[in-house]
Fold each of these.
Amino acid sequence: MKMIPYGRQDITDEDVQSVVAVLRSDYLTQGPLVPEFERKISSYCGANFAVAVNSATSALHIACMALGLGPGDWLWTSPVTFVASANCGLYCGASVDFVDIDPKTYNLSPHELEKKLVDAEREGCLPKVVVAVHLAGQSCEMKEIYRLSKIYGFRIIEDASHAIGGSYLSAKIGACKYSDITVFSFHPVKIITTAEGGMAVTNSAELASKMSLLRSHGITRDIDSMINSSDGPWYYEQTSLGYNYRMTELQAALGVTQMNRLDTYVTKRHELANRYVDLFQNQPITLPWQDPNGYSGFHLYIIRLKLNEIKKSHLEIFEYLRAKNISVNLHYIPLYKHPYYSNHGIGSSICFEAESYYAEAISLPMYPTLTFSEQDYVASSLIDCLN
């Protein structure tokens, strides 16, 4: 049996031809396909603006900068996420803290958020930005988080790196109905890929303009945005300190054709998720709970082991599956456990639900080209180990 990864890209002849066409064109970067990809994403999500960048990490960074996050400010996020969801605050010189997760969705808990906000208001250290991470592709309870933002005055970034193609309360994730900015990732294991790449979408022209400036060194050629008078057609100005976070034409070409199959990919992921439910009937594991108010992108399929009913440890089961050529993974180690965070005292307290999750979670293979026979093998191998 060949190695079955937990996730992988699907590259078709259409994708290859689109990239080859760019290689034979006049533009390898900053050409017409980047804005075309942006239009496809914004139109699909129902957002007014989209800003393409070279990674979701870059998108998170410029989103924080556009919202004015800086030294003396706080960013709060979930502890169960990739490091970029918190690092973006540190890049801006802000302080970072964590809000415990909901025991059913594994997303940031609005109940825990409200409790923490009450304490923070009393202590004078409310967050300026909350990054709501849509773990595995399922939206956070954004309506409740948004309600709290109006009471306590914080801005909201949706880290939807796992979630393009999903929806919440009948709107596509990325519509930004309950947030300032939403960020997507196009890493190869994500729902669609541009090899590397990311996107920030927003309904604010001001935020879109700031992020567009920040992704390209803070340089503008727009006369209306310049401070001084133009010296001629060659003239440009650096008006702020930005970065080289631009997306290439090659990446955008791949993204444009991948978008043609986005809904197909998400439908297949749901089909696989439903099969897992059937395959794991009456097993000592907890399957992913799905909020009826949303439709997950199902980037990941995360199970939790009922260790009190199983004679093997978390590690033993993980290693057993790896030995069977099933490349399971664990998403994620609570961020405050990483040495950089713990050594710098980042994270005010242990998040008990996150700890419980970390002790039990395993991500099983989930991607559109996973065959039913491969999925059957994954399920039977896990069941053999559990029993």
Amino acid sequence: MNWDIIEGNWKQMKGKFKEQWGKLTDDDFDAIEGRHDQLTGKIQERYGVTRDDAEKQVKEWQNQAKDDWFH
């Protein structure tokens, strides 16, 4: 799924992100506001992984994202 679609539907996507990265708080998601670089930074911070690992996790999640998540 294209990141622009995810960013444009951020409020609907927050629940799906919470399922994947439960250590991220509502305040984290409010601060991220759909920005890819902010998301990877927060994953890196909360989970203690490298930037590359955080990027890989987000990319894998993005590849699994489904259009029907918006309905």
Amino acid sequence: MAYVSARRQWSVFYLTAEGKAEGWGGRDRSLYAESVLEGIDYKTGEIKWKHEIGPGEGSAGIMTTAGNVLFTADTSGNLLALSPSTGETLWHLNLGGRIANSPMTYEVGGRQYLMFACDDTLYAFALPH
């Protein structure tokens, strides 16, 4: 399964003095966006599931562990643990700020940890044995 973070966005384009529309290279401004995480069958390209991330631009990274858990975040500051096969939320925790980075994992003394940054704070969570 492949995973992709996508968004639906509505924009407004301004006209230049010559009456030509300017887009991404100029003064395009996003009016509204919705973000969604999609589980895609890499063999067929079929979208197997969608998980709404929320209004605005979702910018958190995605990490899937060997223990079959997908970690990411939504636009409301929630750290999410999802089932990679269904997109179902297994666990979440609101960290109270913007999560705009990729999660990482590391091991110390035989124990696995998950680390996320939220605003200017690093959070580390010990995973169950």
Amino acid sequence: MILVLTVCLTFQAQPVDISDALKGLRDKNDLPGLVALAVQGDRVAAQGAAGVRKRGADAAMTINDRVHLGSCTKSMTATLIAILVAEKKLAWTTTVGDSFPRLKESMHPDWRGVTLEQLLTHRGGAPANLDADGLWGRLWNHKGSPTEQRLALVDVVVRRKPDTKPGGKYIYSNAGFAIAGAIAETTMREPWESLMQERIFKPLGMSSAGFGPPGSKDSLDQPRGHDAEGRPVEPGPGADNPAAIGPAGTVHCSLGDWAKYAFIHARMDPNGSKKPPRGAEGFLKALKPPAFEKLHAPPGIGEPRYAMGWIVADRDWADGPVLTHAGSNTMWFAVVWLAPKKDLALLAATNQAGDKAAAACDAAVVELLQAVQKK
């Protein structure tokens, strides 16, 4: 039985409203919409929203709208794996070879010893793209379930020699996280999407969380993603990456719900207070502080300092280490910054992709930080 609790994030009497600043950033970068939110000490300290859900439409984008997280999904998949490790369903040393015995004869020998830990730190030799042998195109056209899509991905990728020696060179790879997700669902005999709902979203009260493009095609009930040229993309085929790489980047949710998840990582980091956020005590019975130390620790082999779904860096404004990641499915852009010593999480997202979207989200994070520092 999964215990359902809700992480409680309260609003300060007057959280700083940065909507005007976001409007300026949205206009400067010619974006449809832009949202941002800061959490500090269990409280929403600053927030703002500007623009519209769809370019050319009147429906305003709001702070409660759902946004696509892209590759910020990766840390969530790693967190799911950490829960399954804590439950002794998996181990960080679980290998690709052990997980897919049916592929024993077709699998390249170098894949057999690749571990979950290596996959989740981009050190498993998984390819940077899936174009070889036309796999990417076939995944777009695959008519099976998401689980079947991921198994199809695994079947093709592991036939080829890893792109680098496992455990060595860093190669950023959506395929590696897709394989890790496939290991989880093969072991648990349950789709990755269901595991995410049961082990992460429901326990944390992330009621807005789902997969793929948010909203329905027949109603402008949620924002639309836009490509880098500003063209809106309606929900449906082509509005997100194939479900095959879901564990690498297909989650959507509101900023408030994303903050519930992100703030736990900030607080439970080795540099954080380790005081459980209110409402998260039940969730953290399955995921104790040593698990976060594992999730946040880069392997110590060259650059970048990439942990499991987090880039680790140092910033003066954070008084030490930060955890960060950005995500885009080519129709959205989202970014998160965690400053554990400041008990702080900063999040921003826009419903368009491209360089201007990234610049606007980075600037929105600066606005959040300045608002928090002034309080």
